[in-house]
Structure formats: structure tokens, C-alpha cells
Amino acid sequence: MRIGVVADTHMSRTAKSLPKALVEEFRQVDQILHLGDWVALEVYEMLAALAPVDGIAGNNDGAEIISRFGERKIITLEGKRIGMIHGHAPYSRKGTDGNALLAFEGESVDIILFGHSHQPLLRKENGILLFNPGSPTDKRREKLYSFGLLDIADGEVNARHIFYDSKE
Fold this sequence. Notes:
By secondary structure, the chain is α/β, with parallel strands linked by helices. The chain has helices at residues 20-26, 42-48, 63-69, 95-103, and strands spanning 2-6, 31-34, 53-55, 72-77, 80-85, 111-113, 121-125, 128-132, 145-153, 156-164. The chain has a five-stranded mixed beta sheet with strand order 3-2-1-9-10, with helices on one face. A five-stranded mixed beta sheet has the order 4-5-6-8-7, with helices on one face. A hairpin with a 2-residue loop joins strand 7 and strand 8 (128-132). The longest helix has 9 residues, at 95-103. The chain starts with a strand and ends with a strand.
């Protein structure tokens, strides 16, 4: 199973399209997971035209997105428990990755996906894969825009970032 992972699109209602690099890759995925800060529900519609979409809301999302997706969830795909959180809540642990870990403390998860910082991250802590895809449209201080891909096959998870220099 191939999963497209995206966060922090920050696309307003006037945005006309997703970046070409993201669209090309997400046409080939089985599932898309959005980790918050969609900003406009139209982003869901754009992504849903490519593959089935699930996600959670972030701190820049309105009531409609929050009520539709919630702000935290655990899903199971291909036998792997995946925790999804935006990462902005003040859980009192250093960094967005620390907040994400603390949000699922005491729960059995294999992967924690999060966003908020716009900084791509891929590491393991205590056997849990922590993955932040970065942002495909708002790179802030990063050199490149990014999103992520997760491949789950035969009980193994492989995660990687896709980096590119134009949000067009």
C-alpha cells in the first residue's frame, strides 16, 4: 500500500491547483492522509480527485474542517496503527515532534504523522516512526517544498520525502 502524506497546505479558497509534483505522485497512491492546516475544504476536493482522503484539522482550520476530520485520530492501514495529529497543541514537550509523541503517549501506535512546523522530519523513537512531510506550498525557512510517501508491504514501513523547488 502506498500512502501520500501531506500537511500545511495553507491553501485559500482562491487557490486553483495543487503543486504538479504532488499531483503526479498522489495519482499513484492508494490513500492520502492530510495532517492539518488545509485552510479551505476545497483542498479535500482537489486531493479526493486523486485518491481516497482522510486527515485531521490543524490550528488554522475552521469549524467545518474540525467537525469533519477531528483534531486527533488513530487509523489502521495494512496492520499498522497510525496516529495523526497536527502538533500545535502545547503538550509541554520540546518541539513539534515531542508534542506529537506526547499526544499518543501510552497508546499503541507504529507511526505518528504530524505537521505544523513545516519542517520535514523522519526518525524513529522507541520503535515509533515519526514523520512530518513538511509543506508542499509554504516552505517557510526550508530550502525546498515537500510532502511524503509511506509504503507499507509485508509488515514493513518505508517512508520518504519528495522535495521540489516550485509550488506550481
